[in-house]
Amino acid sequence: MSKAPPITNVSDLMAIAYQIEADAVQRYTVLAEQMETHNNPELVKVFRDLARAEGLHAEEIRKLAGDEDIAQRAEALRGWSRGDSPEEVDLGAAHYLMTPWHALQLSLVGEKRALDFFTSIVETTKDPKVKEMASEFVEEEAEHVNLVYRLLRKYPKPSDSWSDDPDTPLAQG
Amino acid sequence: MSSIEPRLACKPADYKSNVNPIWCPGCGDYHVLMSFTRAFAQLGLAPENTVVVSGIGCSSRIPAYTNCYGFHGVHGRSLALATGLKVSRPDLTVVVASGDGDGYSIGGNHFLHACRRNIDMTYVVMDNRVYGMTKGQPSPTTEPDFDTALSPGGTGLSPFHPLVIALASGANFVARAFSGEPNETANILVEAIKHPGFSFVEILSPCVTFRPDERDWKSQVHPAPVGPTSDPAKAARRIMTDDGFNIGILYRGARAPYRPKIANATVDLAELEKDFEL
Asked: Do B25 and A172 touch (CB under 8 A)?
């Protein structure tokens, strides 16, 4: 995961926060499409819901930015660091038989990384305005982490045989 | 890369078609598609002047998922198609997509000569060291001890070494990327497309279905410890002695790309048709 770039103003912070949410929307949408293709409707709904939630967060940040085109600013800042942005879930972890529990585990990792990301900004910035706004993002990300934990109560961990497939593609191998 | 001025404000999503990929969930090729669209957006390529050409295999489905022109060709012949296209339409940006089976086995000979010709295009090979679409046969880059029902006891054959072969054959740009780092891969693709001549990018792209062990690549890849060299012999030595997981641009050559002596076709289509009259 990327480390926090040196953020010197609130506009850059909002742009990066926006990009983090937009990247998450993209990844969840890709996962929803994968599950649609592989006929896993329960997961389609979970990933679509997660994409919708992240999209709402992105929209809130965009509104917060007022007239400034933070989407464009975010695109310009995209190369700020090596690696994924904090809430980009690992597409490589997907499996055609995965369950909502697995989806939420992926989401939890992303939310915790976002929490760490904004916390590191709060701890390192010297700009009081950046600190104040980053602190708000920390609060929001903490809420998201708690929300995922609450959702996980609804979807307990599946048995170890969750990936058993009577018609495995590995049959030849 | 073509010299056409980039259009304004194309976003990565603008380069993605409305066709949903049918790769297996977890496949590295999803990330590669993401890297393609990010690279195209970063370069501001006009979709109508960009062509993605491919052969056959899982990775070769990628033209259908991009919003540029595409040509899903026959097995192993993507470079032959792309060569004809680029020579006749040098104004286009041509990106060729392949896999280790398509590109190094049936297309192996085209690979050598495409490197040698050094035509200005980018060749991306998504290497998962297995034939995924046909259910897990060993490919030219498969390890000798890959023991399955289809290759009992393993093939016992040394794997093909594509990056060194590319260098020896004259490729002008050689890089290795990892699909699980889509931003870094996009940056490498940007440099490859911008570099004049034949650019070769091998992307390690796990096949989670037939090579689930490749999920571990994420923890094995690392940035190349030194920057690219312009000395092919030095680059070859580095690549031959690395662990196969060095990521980054490894070689940037300065060889002038091939350009046909006749810049524009001057033969009228009607004239050509006469040659085929019965």
From this structure: no
The domain locations on chain A are 10-156
Which whole-number Å values give the CA distances from B23 to A94, A141, B146, in the listed order? 11, 32, 23
Judged by a CB distance cut-off of 8 A, whether residue B135 touches chain A is yes
Q: State the ipTM, two decimals.
A: 0.83
Give the CATH superfamily of A10-156.
Ferritin, core subunit, four-helix bundle (1.20.1260.10)
Note the residue count of chain B: 278
Model pLDDT for residues B97-151, shown as the tens digit of each residue:
999 999 999 999 999 999 999 999 999 999 999 999 998 999 999 999 999 888 9
- The answer to whether A19 faces chain B, any CB pair under 8 Å, is no
Q: How far apart are CA A168 and CA A124, in angstroms?
A: 50
Question: For residue A72, what pLDDT band results from cuts at 50, 70 and 90?
Answer: confident
Nearest Cα of chain B lies from the Cα of A128 at a distance, in angstroms, of 31
Q: Is the pLDDT of residue B277 over 90?
A: no
B123: helix, strand or coil: strand
Contact A170 B210 (CB under 8 A): yes
Give me the residue spans of the domains in chain B: 12-275
- According to DSSP, residue B225 is labeled S
Interface of A with B in 139-158 (CB under 8 A): none
CB contact under 8 A, B136 and A173: yes
Give Cα B57 distance to the centre of its chain.
13
Any CB–CB contact under 8 A between A78 and chain B? Answer: yes
Whether B209 and A170 lie within 8 Å, measured CB to CB? yes
Its CATH architecture, for the domain B12-275, is 3-Layer(aba) Sandwich (3.40)
